[in-house]
């Protein structure tokens, strides 16, 4: 096959003609039931979930009240991407989201790559939400006096890793009672679970239950899914407004001082977690064929969803950080926590119920998007034909919906929440990057049918290069030490937790004795606690760690071991230079360009291991493409 055939493109007009043909004869046509209000509700259902009920706590603990700027930044980044999505959705109003858009802009190989990445986004996102729903549901059962064994409410990896870490910390002198609550639960789940030889049976059964229920609902039909989603959105919006109305009377403005206790670094520390709170608005674009007027309604639905959710996120963040000190919010259920702390337990119960509803609505939207991506890829011949089968009665992609249920349910029993959250984020951000780039690629091409919505044009020819130069100057002027350390790859000392959990039993004893001999360990046998007490004075902490009787690679990271973690940021910085050159030469549109840059920056904040896992996933996808999809592609068959 010629290289150019890998980048053969779909024609917009051919896509539109095929949709009209499907609608005319009813073959493969989906039911059209959605308006602007329904689309906005789906967006709110997808966005308001983990952000309000979970990740907002950790982000607030890192950034203080200034975390509101992180929500605004993330909303702005998503809005830039939403403009690109809306323009494509208006131009190509069919199911498929970024996959279909990339087929038009870049060609088949890139379309396959983004489609494969979207499978990761939706499948992994569903797993993440199912695990979070399970946590809230089991917490609700506990408050009602129903206590499930730990090994049926936790995934295998969390229990295994938690047991290992807890054992290392207790070996270092920490008592079980002083372990983090999550580590206590993981240790208990692992030690009390049934075993078969060396295998421990630990599986998240509530996560399996909710996936089965939601998959059945999505299979049943779009109208039923819409009605259920709208009902859940109304319930959780009422609860959130109640939280704001009650919480505002307990706000102490003294808790807002300092407003940004850890500076910009603290605010940006939670960028990935907060971004995960926003993903899902793009799932709206997968319902294009089920909209009554997609060219008008899809852009409006996306924008309204982002605006409403951002306003709610900012108000909730201000209320939470006003009710208690930001440093106390590093908990998994911050809303329930603050009301329980203020002895308003009736509100904690209401919040627990609403969290269960909110998570279910997020799962509904994600579980709805995945089969429609597969259906679009199957229609193009890139996946087996069965994936494009539409149920004759329910008018939903039936086979793809059932497969989605299995793909999500099985890993949800065993996978770790942090791992799947980051994988979902990188897959989503990659999709956003390609959609924004697609708008830039098509902006000056003639003979491309344009929809009713077009992203406002601002020429980035000079803005982008000037912005890059100003950014470099600001880094040198106001953050010189960190910039120099980054460029010179200066060694970084490990955290107390990392050091302690890396030690053998003999090393732990040796380190403790050395601290005792220097009168550092007086009054405590908890090695992590001893080291942590020096972290507030970086220079003193580094001197203390440097003198420990252990190997250097346990004390700090340097050389390539440190540089590898900076590779994502170097990719981002090199991309900025290339994008500046592209913008100057081609007069690129500023809004999609800013969307591309913001999403690349958030990708750079994810660890290098997430990039590696992501590229392994893409390599598996390429093997499938060259083994099956390339030969069976309808564009290929039409040329034979």
From TrEMBL:
UniProt name for this protein: Amino acid permease
Membrane topology, from the record: Multi-pass membrane protein
Ranges for domain Cationic amino acid transporter C-terminal: 590-633
Keyword set, alphabetical order: Membrane, Transmembrane, Transmembrane helix, Transport
Cellular component GO terms held in the UniProt record: membrane
Entry's transmembrane regions: 39-60, 66-86, 198-219, 231-251, 263-281, 302-326, 346-366, 396-414, 420-442, 462-479, 567-583, 588-604, 610-628
Molecular function as annotated in GO: amino acid transmembrane transporter activity
Pfam short name (any one): AA_permease_2
Localization (cell): Membrane
InterPro entries registered for this protein in UniProt: AA/rel_permease1, CAT_C
């Amino acid at each position: 096959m010629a290289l150019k055939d890998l980048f053969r493109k779909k024609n917009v007009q051919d896509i539109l003609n095929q949709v009209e043909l499907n609608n005319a004869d009813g073959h493969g046509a989906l039911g059209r039931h959605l308006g602007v209000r329904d689309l906005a509700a789906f967006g709110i259902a997808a966005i308001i979930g983990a952000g309000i009920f979970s990740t907002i706590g950790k982000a607030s603990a890192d950034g203080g009240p200034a975390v509101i700027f992180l929500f605004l930044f993330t909303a702005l980044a998503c809005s830039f991407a939403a403009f690109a999505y809306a323009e494509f959705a208006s131009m190509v109003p069919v199911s498929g989201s970024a996959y279909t858009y990339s087929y038009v802009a870049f060609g088949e190989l890139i379309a396959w790559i983004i489609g494969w990445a979207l499978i990761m986004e939706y499948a992994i996102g569903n797993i993440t939400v199912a695990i979070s729903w399970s946590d809230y549901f089991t917490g609700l059962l506990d408050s009602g006096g129903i206590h499930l064994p730990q090994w049926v409410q936790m995934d295998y990896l969390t229990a295994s890793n938690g047991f290992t870490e807890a054992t290392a910390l207790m070996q270092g002198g920490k008592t079980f009672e002083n372990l983090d609550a999550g580590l206590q639960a993981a240790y208990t789940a692992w030690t009390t679970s049934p075993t078969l030889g060396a295998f421990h049976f630990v599986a998240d059964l509530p996560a399996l239950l909710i996936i089965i229920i939601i998959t059945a609902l999505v299979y049943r039909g779009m109208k039923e899914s819409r009605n259920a989603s709208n009902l859940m959105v109304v319930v959780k919006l009422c609860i959130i407004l109640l939280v704001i109305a009650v919480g505002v009377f307990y706000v102490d403005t003294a808790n807002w001082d300092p407003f940004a206790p850890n500076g910009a670094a603290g605010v940006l520390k939670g960028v990935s977690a907060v971004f995960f709170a926003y993903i899902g608005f793009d799932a709206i674009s997968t319902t294009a064929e089920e909209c009554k007027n997609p060219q008008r309604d899809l852009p409006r639905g996306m924008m309204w969803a982002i605006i409403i959710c951002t306003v709610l996120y900012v108000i909730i963040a201000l209320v939470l950080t006003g009710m208690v000190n930001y440093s106390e919010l590093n908990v998994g259920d911050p809303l329930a926590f603050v009301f329980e702390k203020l002895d308003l337990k009736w509100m904690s119960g209401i919040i627990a119920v609403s969290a269960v509803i909110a998570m279910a609505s997020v799962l509904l939207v994600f579980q709805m998007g995945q089969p429609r991506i597969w259906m679009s890829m199957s229609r193009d011949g890139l996946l087996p034909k069965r994936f494009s089968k539409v149920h004759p009665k329910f008018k939903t992609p039936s086979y793809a919906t059932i497969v989605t249920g299995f793909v999500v349910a099985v890993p949800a029993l065993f996978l770790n929440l942090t791992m799947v959250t980051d994988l979902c984020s990188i897959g989503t951000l990659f999709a956003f990057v390609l959609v924004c780039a697609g708008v830039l690629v098509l902006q000056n091409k003639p003979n491309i049918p344009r929809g009713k919505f077009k992203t406002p044009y601002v020429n980035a020819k000079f803005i982008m290069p000037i912005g890059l130069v100003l950014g470099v100057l600001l880094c040198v002027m106001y953050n010189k030490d960190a910039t120099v350390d980054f460029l010179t790859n200066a060694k970084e000392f490990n955290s107390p937790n990392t050091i302690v959990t890396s030690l053998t039993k003999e090393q732990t004893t040796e380190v403790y004795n050395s601290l005792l001999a220097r009168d550092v360990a007086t009054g405590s046998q908890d090695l992590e606690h001893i080291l942590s007490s020096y972290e507030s004075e970086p220079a003193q902490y580094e001197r203390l760690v440097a003198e420990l009787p252990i190997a250097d690679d346990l004390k700090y990271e340097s050389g390539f071991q440190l540089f590898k973690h900076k590779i994502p940021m170097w990719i981002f910085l090199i991309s900025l230079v290339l994008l500046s050159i592209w913008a100057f030469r081609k007069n690129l549109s500023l809004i999609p360009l800013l969307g591309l840059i913001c999403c690349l920056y958030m990708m750079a904040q994810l660890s290098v291991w997430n990039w590696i896992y992501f590229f392994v996933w893409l390599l598996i996808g390429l093997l499938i493409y060259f083994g099956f999809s390339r030969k069976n592609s309808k564009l290929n068959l039409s040329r034979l």
